[in-house]
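Worked Example 4.2. Consider the chain below.
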Amino acid sequence: RFGRKRPSVLLHSLITLTNLGVVMYPSVHTICISRIINVLCSGFLIITTQSIIGDLFSGNNQKDNNNGHGKDQMGAVLGRQAALISSGFLFGSLLGGRLTEYGERIAYSVAAIFSALAALNAAFRMTDTLD
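Applying the procedure from the previous section yields the following structure tokens:
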């Protein structure tokens, strides 16, 4: 059994690799395959983050079982997460549209940088909730 950190780092890394694939080989087929993989990874990433939130707020966190977070706060945190995901879709699309005016490679390069930073953040700053 392993925790939530490994899947999070793996999913962010896969998103980074698919974005870099479009940067290196910008074709319609590469973009379509990249988008399919990105959508699947993003869906699994949302499930992983909700599992982390569930671990932290339901008392299942074995590292720090008395972390001061109650079940009553979990709904508020999940609501904030949904709002941030929606904002990310909105502003990511706006930024991606602007960057695409300069070419698809620029837009996918910026997306690769953001996803690489997220992978590094998960790898080095995230603590596992199920150790």
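Residues 10 and 119 are 8 Å apart (CA to CA). The mean pLDDT is 86. Compare this with Example 4.1 before moving on.
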